[in-house]
């Protein structure tokens, strides 16, 4: 196996390949004679493992994630558009904020559709939405309190949904960077909506917050974690468990997010 030819070929499509390998080169250079022989013998295995991890995601799996994200952005942008068109959904003092949020979500939709098209993938069609969730929220477009509760649920879902798919985008740094940029904005939206509702900008435990309808509890499942990367954070920090849960935001799996979104898709 010509390792250097492989690296050269990868360099043509990934200019940062040497940065990915730099730590390994430094480790090899510190070995003695015997160590170097062992290292060279292990290179084919190490290279194969590294490349599978770094480049293993197929373009089809990335497209699946982008179409999944697009469906969520459709949901959010349509929710805010319909809310702004309704006469009693949004209090006057919050209208300008939600106009901005709607425009942000529309920009996300346009970006994701264009990204998919650039990959020769057909963007997912926009679903038909029922924001009453089959009658569970009958006053969503006439009661500002209900509208705000759903806005919080959607934004908190969006934050956790993007986080849950980051690992599936590592093979495409451009797409991963853009997804993280969207994730950050969703977090800003969520924090402001929560503050408008008189809550903290972050989530405590798996609590959905005062005034949130029971069906939204699925959005907060798993948020009560205090173990991070196998580290008992309250134990090592001396910080109380409720505050530790606020300090770390948990991802949601794709299946969990789809279950939440499907409540509002006809």
Can you walk me through this structure?
By secondary structure, the protein is mostly helical. It has two domains: 3-55, no CATH class; 59-262, Ferritin (Up-down Bundle). Helix content is 62%, strand content 2%. The protein is built from ten helices and two strands. The protein has a two-stranded antiparallel ribbon. It is globular and about 50 Å long. Pfam families: Ferritin_2.
CATH homology-level superfamily of the largest domain: Ferritin, core subunit, four-helix bundle
CATH class of the largest domain: Mainly Alpha
Number of helices: 10
What is the domain tally?
2
CATH architecture of the largest domain: Up-down Bundle
- CATH third-tier fold name of the largest domain: Ferritin
Question: Considering DSSP H and I runs of 4 or more, what fraction of the residues is helical?
Answer: 55-70%
Number of strands: 2
User: Which of globular, elongated, flat, extended, rod-shaped describes the shape?
Assistant: globular
Q: For the largest beta sheet, what order do the strands appear in spatially?
A: 1-2
Ranges where pLDDT stays below 50 over 5 or more residues in a row are 1-7, 20-57
> Tell me about the biggest sheet?
2 strands, antiparallel
Secondary structure class reads mainly alpha
Radius of gyration: 23 Å
Our estimate of the beta-strand percent is under 5%
Distance between the termini: 54 Å
Mean pLDDT reading: 83
């Amino acid at each position: 196996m010509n390792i250097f030819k492989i690296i050269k070929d990868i360099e043509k499509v990934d200019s940062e390949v040497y940065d990915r390998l730099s730590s390994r080169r430094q480790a090899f250079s510190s070995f003695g004679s015997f160590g170097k022989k062992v290292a060279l013998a292990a290179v084919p295995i190490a290279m194969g493992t590294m490349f599978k991890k770094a480049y293993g995601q197929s373009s089809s799996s990335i497209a699946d994630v982008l179409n999944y994200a697009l469906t969520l952005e459709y949901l959010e942008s349509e929710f805010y558009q319909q809310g702004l068109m309704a006469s009693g959904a949004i209090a006057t003092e919050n209208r300008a904020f939600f106009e901005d949020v709607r425009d942000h979500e529309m920009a996300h939709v346009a970006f994701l559709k264009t990204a998919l098209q650039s990959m020769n993938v057909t963007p997912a069609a926009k679903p038909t939405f029922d924001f009453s969730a089959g009658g569970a929220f009958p006053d969503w477009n006439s009661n500002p309190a209900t509208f705000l509760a759903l806005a919080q649920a959607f934004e908190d879902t969006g934050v956790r949904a993007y986080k849950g798919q980051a690992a599936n985008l590592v093979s495409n740094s451009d797409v991963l960077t853009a997804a993280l940029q969207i994730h950050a904005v969703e977090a800003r939206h969520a924090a402001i909506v929560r503050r408008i509702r008189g809550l903290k900008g972050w989530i405590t435990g798996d609590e959905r917050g005062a005034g949130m309808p029971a069906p939204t509890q699925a959005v907060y499942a798993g948020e009560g974690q205090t173990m991070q990367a196998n580290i008992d954070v309250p134990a090592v920090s001396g910080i109380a468990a409720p505050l530790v849960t606020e300090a770390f935001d948990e991802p949601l799996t794709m299946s969990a997010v789809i279950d939440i979104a499907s409540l509002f898709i006809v």
